[in-house]
TrEMBL record:
<dbReference type="Pfam" id="PF01205">
    <property type="entry name" value="Impact_N"/>
</dbReference>
<feature type="domain" description="Impact N-terminal">
    <location>
        <begin position="23"/>
        <end position="128"/>
    </location>
</feature>
<dbReference type="GO" id="GO:0005737">
    <property type="term" value="C:cytoplasm"/>
</dbReference>
<protein>
    <submittedName>
        <fullName>YigZ family protein</fullName>
    </submittedName>
</protein>
<dbReference type="InterPro" id="IPR020568">
    <property type="entry name" value="Ribosomal_Su5_D2-typ_SF"/>
</dbReference>
<dbReference type="InterPro" id="IPR023582">
    <property type="entry name" value="Impact"/>
</dbReference>
<dbReference type="InterPro" id="IPR036956">
    <property type="entry name" value="Impact_N_sf"/>
</dbReference>
<dbReference type="InterPro" id="IPR001498">
    <property type="entry name" value="Impact_N"/>
</dbReference>
<comment type="similarity">
    <text>Belongs to the IMPACT family.</text>
</comment>
<dbReference type="GO" id="GO:0006446">
    <property type="term" value="P:regulation of translational initiation"/>
</dbReference>
Length: 203
């Protein structure tokens, strides 16, 4: 997942819907980019509404690079017959910051545990194959805090260094969240240390 150059594989946009059929059961599979664990439930709830006839919406997700967190959910299927086969495909493709979900509409014929494992694994594989997998650099996030009198200095510095602004909050003072490639972080820290009225902390 993380290689020696400090890069990792993920997706930036959701995959198209993929349909896999096995003995009249239908397995609708999807891959989504994922940054916060809290985003999982709304995604799964949305899929349940899209597929009201689905008996199960099983999924696996992984977030993080050096110390990834993951979860696999069978949603009522036999233990480890759905979530873990899906998670296994995340491992096979070497991707992180991703959610893969499979909605199953029962076709009247039981598949058995072996059949379920194969079906969920294949559906997850097809969703990942339909996704655009990209390589990204490891990044470090910082919070800049400063008064409005420092706005021009901060914005000019960010523009000159081509630093990515993730979000900003303007209240009594200004807060800007930035992200930089990890290998550039020490340089950014040194630059902003030189500005006494601008606070910088890693987040």
């Amino acid at each position: 997942m993380e290689n020696q150059s400090g890069r990792f594989k993920t997706i930036e946009t959701a995959s198209p819907e993929v349909l896999y059929k096995e003995r009249k059961s239908k397995f609708f599979a999807y891959a989504f980019p994922l940054y916060e664990e809290e985003d999982v439930k709304p995604r799964i709830d949305s899929l349940r509404k899209m597929h009201p006839a689905a008996n199960h919406v099983c999924y696996a997700w992984q977030i993080g690079i050096s110390e990834p967190r993951y979860r696999a959910n069978d949603d009522g299927e036999p233990n480890n017959s759905a979530g873990m086969p899906i998670y296994g495909q995340l491992q096979s493709f070497g991707v992180t910051n991703i959610l893969v979900a499979v909605a199953r509409v029962f076709g009247g014929t039981k598949l058995g545990v072996g059949g379920l494992i194969n079906a969920y694994r294949t559906a997850a594989q097809l969703a990942l194959e339909a996704s655009t997998i990209i390589e990204k650099s490891l990044e470090q996030r910082f919070l800049l805090s400063f008064g409005y009198d420092q706005m021009n200095t901060v914005m000019r510095t960010l523009k000159q260094r081509q630093i990515n602004i993730e979000s900003q909050k303007m209240g009594l003072d200004c807060q800007i969240f930035i992200s930089v490639e990890q290998h550039k972080a020490p340089e950014i820290i040194e630059i902003f240390k030189g500005f006494h009225k601008i606070g910088l902390k890693s987040v």
